[in-house]
Amino acid sequence: MQQFVKGCLRTVYLYYAEDEEVDDNPIEEVRLTVPITDDPSQPALTFRTWVLGITSCCLLASMNQFFGYRQNKLDVGSVSAQILVLPIGQLMAATLTSKQIRVPLTKWSFSLNPGPFNIKDQC
C-alpha cells in the first residue's frame, strides 16, 4: 500500500501476525488514533455529515477570505473547524429526531439521526 505524506510517496506495509493484521504506518499519531479496519455498521453519509461539512466549509472559507484582506494575514486551519464540529455533532446526535423522512416522488427516505455520533460523521 502506498501513502502520500508531506510531499513524498511512502509505502506502508501491512503484515499479518498470528492471524491479526498489524499496521506498520510510519506516522506514530496515525497508528495510535486511526484503526486499520472499517466498521461497516457505522453510517458514513448522514444528514449530520452533510450539514456539518457544508456549514463548516462555508464558514471557514468566509473567515479566511475576510482575514485575508488584512495587512497581517490570519489563516484559520481546518483542524480548528474539526475541533468545533465535534461538540456540535454530539449535540445534534442528542437532539435531532430519528424519525424517517421520505423524499417526495421517490422511494427514498432518510433519518436526521441514524444513531450515535461516530468517527465517520466527523471526518
From TrEMBL:
Example of a GO cellular component annotation carried by this entry: membrane
Source organism, top-level taxon: Eukaryota
Cellular localisation: Membrane
Transmembrane annotation, as ranges: none
Chief location: membrane
Membrane topology classification: Multi-pass membrane protein
GO molecular function, one term: oligopeptide transmembrane transporter activity
Record's keyword terms, sorted: Membrane, Peptide transport, Protein transport, Transmembrane, Transmembrane helix, Transport
Pfam families linked: OPT (PF03169)
Biological processes, Gene Ontology terms: protein transport
Record-stated family: Belongs to the oligopeptide OPT transporter (TC 2.A.67.1) family.
Listed name of the protein: Uncharacterized protein
